[in-house]
């Protein structure tokens, strides 16, 4: 009857910080979870009850685009006469223009590199 409990697990004091550190991490994660849930609830409450119909929004955008194109074309017909008057006279600076001369070497690319891309 002389059986005594024997400690076969080694020194129990060396890992004495593991328990409190684990508790600290669990508490920290719990606080972060609560804050995230509160934030998401606020964001969900701000959402509208229903969203607008995508097809209706596309129709309205198409109508607005067509109206803008129509207004631009109507304004363009009035400005065509002005442009026609301007183009009747040749510009005075045409003699001063620099004409580009393309050589065999320059045909490869815009920067003069004849290597293929």
From TrEMBL:
<keyword id="KW-1133">Transmembrane helix</keyword>
<feature type="compositionally biased region" description="Basic and acidic residues">
    <location>
        <begin position="65"/>
        <end position="74"/>
    </location>
</feature>
<feature type="compositionally biased region" description="Basic and acidic residues">
    <location>
        <begin position="96"/>
        <end position="117"/>
    </location>
</feature>
<keyword id="KW-0812">Transmembrane</keyword>
<keyword id="KW-0472">Membrane</keyword>
<feature type="region of interest" description="Disordered">
    <location>
        <begin position="65"/>
        <end position="117"/>
    </location>
</feature>
<feature type="transmembrane region" description="Helical">
    <location>
        <begin position="17"/>
        <end position="37"/>
    </location>
</feature>
<protein>
    <recommendedName>
        <fullName>Preprotein translocase subunit TatA</fullName>
    </recommendedName>
</protein>
């Amino acid at each position: 009857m002389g059986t005594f409990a024997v400690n076969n697990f080694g020194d129990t004091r060396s890992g004495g910080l593991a328990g409190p550190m684990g508790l600290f991490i669990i508490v920290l994660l719990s606080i972060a979870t609560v804050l995230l849930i509160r934030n998401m609830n606020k964001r969900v409450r701000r959402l509208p009850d229903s969203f607008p119909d995508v097809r209706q929004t596309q129709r309205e955008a198409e109508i607005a685009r067509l109206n803008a194109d129509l207004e631009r074309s109507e304004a363009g017909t009035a400005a065509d006469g002005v442009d026609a008057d301007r183009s009747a006279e040749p510009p005075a600076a045409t003699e001063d223009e620099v004409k580009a001369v393309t050589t065999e070497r320059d045909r490869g690319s815009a920067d003069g590199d004849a290597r293929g891309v």
